[in-house]
Amino acid sequence: MNCKPFLLSLLLAGGVTATGPALAAEPELSLVIKNHRFEPGELKVPAGQRIKLVVHNQDSTPEEFESHSLKREKVIPGGAKATIFIGPLKPGRYTFFGEYNEATAKGAVIAE
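RE: above sequence
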């Protein structure tokens, strides 16, 4: 009896591929730009984990998500969404801002 097809289907059903364990999806957080402000102003994330950040610009004008400490920069057109991957991060506070509206568009990622 040839057990290879059975073993392969058993491994695949268990979340294991021929190249190793199936990867878990990154935690996903949402950030909104509204009235030239980031909402929420602070995002708490687990330290040591890569994060998928989905930024939805609800304003009619573009805004740039910029962070020197996260080493990320992304222009998000008005009414559009963008995905930004950050981390894994060491515990700490990482600030970001909107380059086009620096006086009001400010926030931070807090890795714990």
